[in-house]
Amino acid sequence: MATTRGQRLGIWIITGTLAIGTIGGFIAMMVQPSNDAKDQAELKQAQEDYKKATTEWQKKVDAQTAELNKKYYAKFAEFSSRVGAFEAGDVKELGKEDLVEGGGAEVKGDTKFAAYYIGWNAKGEIFDQSINGGKLKAPFAVDGPANTSVIQGWKEGLIGMKIGGVRELTIPADKAYGDRGQGDKIPANSPLKFVVMAIEKPAEIPRPEMPEVIKRYYRSRGLNV
Question: Per the structure, how many domains does the chain have?
Answer without folding.
Answer: 1
